[in-house]
Specification:
Elements (H helix, E strand, L loop, with lengths): L2 E8 L2 H26 L3 H16 L6 E8 L8
Antiparallel strand pairs: 1-2
Amino acid sequence: MPHYEASFEIDSKTDSYAARRMLEQVYDTIREESRSVREGTDDADELLEAFRTLRDAAKQPTPGRLTISYEQYDGGFED
């Protein structure tokens, strides 16, 4: 199973703002997708809550590291 990872060092207010905007956009996208496709399911609620927590944590301009991991699974999508 391939695994990809990218880390972003946040060491300025500009970096912090960029990370916050990215997490806000991801949260908004997941929220909209959940409404149209998976509204009310437990996994959609859990995913949305996880990204809400990340988005809210990024509101404070503090230094840190944002790491994004992507694990690619064997096989295709279910139809």
